[in-house]
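Lest this sound abstract, we think one record worth quoting, the chain in one-letter code, the fold tokenised, each line plainly labelled:

>
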Amino acid sequence: MVMEKRRNFLRFLAYSLEIIILYILASTPHLLPEIFGSKPVILLPVALSIAVFESETVAMSFGFVCGVLTDVGFSGKIGFYTVVLTLLCFAIGYCARNFFVTNLLNASIIGIVSIAVLILVHFWLNVSLADIPDAGKYFVSHYISRIIYTGAFFVPLYFLSRLLCSTMKNE
């Protein structure tokens, strides 16, 4: 019992350090190159990759933290990513635990489709509904590259989360 609590604490600490380090990397100006005028939203694949390996409560908690940091880092206010990423990570954690086998193919499909949908809905709510002129050009010049750039981070973060989960989980 004590050893299990210690492993859980170390695993959650490792996830927290991963989130903090990647948040700092993503928010440091000129550290990550901009591709077609956009930077990746790195905390989305972090939260989704953790959700694939953890229970729904843990997934929801890390989804909430990543959502808050994403909202604060990109828009300066808590909102869209906080709510949606919390609920999405809960659903992914529940489904991963009860309905599908966690492997690279399943996780990649879920993660990359989720990233694309999150960024598309964010565009729709914040740009398209705001009636910004030339929204289509803005989407092509910034959002398509953001989806691809962010999605490219999912597979390496999947392997990192799998490593942290398998070495520190007692099952």
Remarks:
- The mean pLDDT is 88.
- Residues 69 and 102 are 26 Å apart (CA to CA).
- The chain has seven helices and no strands.
